[in-house]
Write a structure and sequence with these properties.
The protein is mainly alpha-helical. Helices cover about 50% and strands about 10% of the residues.
């Protein structure tokens, strides 16, 4: 990183290492990048109670008669705006 940024980034002092001005400036930029990455990877949660829209469900004749009535009832309970 020292070569890339053409700066030592940290200087040895008697009490440890101290960041250079360039390292301090990079710190703010890196913090923003990390926040952006966190926001990018954060997943939105799906809340059926507040969702709206339209879905198409394909099903065989058997599923339409046996399975779909229960599914539709559950959808009406959990997602009333669908």
């Amino acid at each position: 990183m020292r070569e890339v940024f053409e700066d030592p980034l940290f200087i040895r002092k008697p009490n440890g290492f101290v960041p250079t001005l360039a390292a301090e400036c990079l710190n703010f930029k890196i913090q923003q990048i990390l926040l952006d990455l966190e926001a990018l990877t954060a997943q939105d949660t799906f809340d059926p109670a507040t969702a709206s829209g339209a879905f198409a469900i394909a099903a065989t004749d058997y599923a339409q008669v046996i399975v779909m009535p229960e599914i539709i009832e559950r959808i009406r309970q959990d997602a009333p705006d669908f």
